[in-house]
Fold this protein.
Amino acid sequence: MTGSGGAKAMLERRRERRVEVQLTLKIRGTDTDGIGFEETTKTENVCRGGLSFATQRRIVPGADLEISIPVPPRGNESPGEFTTRGRVVAVVLAQDQRQRRVGVEFTGPRFNRLFASEEAS
């Protein structure tokens, strides 16, 4: 998907409320040229069942990714890492034609972290 129609479709597919939060994110996968990559970026938003992020890599819907998110400690907890797998469900090309906003649905464990904006609801 590209352009504003793709962004609208991405919004309509959401089943859960997403929280706009920037978390460090490490993704591993294969781009459209068949080249494996590992990239560190930031999430744009997150929910229990998926997330979105921006990248310059060419990734297509249906691509499988390995995902790791360092999780800061809460209270007396130790820092940890959330790891899962995901499937790319949407790719929207940015106006600059270089960045892509990638929407991912988790196919492995779901993200069970509660954010401050959810606690206030």
